[in-house]
Design goal:
Elements lengths: L1 E14 L8 H8 L8 E14 L10 H16 L2 E2 H4 L10 H13 L7 E9 L2 E5 L4
Parallel strand pairs: 1-3
Antiparallel strand pairs: 1-2, 2-4, 4-5
The protein binds zinc ion.
Length: 137
Amino acid sequence: MKAYLNRRYRFSASHRLHSEQMSDAENQSTYGKCNNPHGHGHNYTLEVTVAGDVDSKTGMVLDIKDLKQLVEDEVLQSMDHRFLNKEVPVFSSTLPTTENIAVEIWKRLAQKLPNGKLHRIRLYETPDLYVDYFGEA
Ligand SMILES: [Zn+2]
């Protein structure tokens, strides 16, 4: 009996989106406020979905306390209230777009969870804009 367990987390962070492969004008028109030289802040909402059989003993897919601790250790401690470009090493060379942040969060959680447990990372940059990432097939 397979079920999908979802947990929502919130964090705030700033970033700057500026691609070396585009001119200043192209960067400005592509990224708008997110191209601000001094950074731009967002209140992100992260939804983590884990999938699996419902354990016959616990009645759960995964102990939600363990997931909470994992997200705290792997994501929130290093990203909450940070300037992502400077404080999260991967984003010194990869643009901290919503897409790339979702992929990074997937990588961090997937390597600490039992194989196949992580089903989806959904990351909201605004209430109306979000990215889903399901890992590589
Ligand atoms: Zn922004």
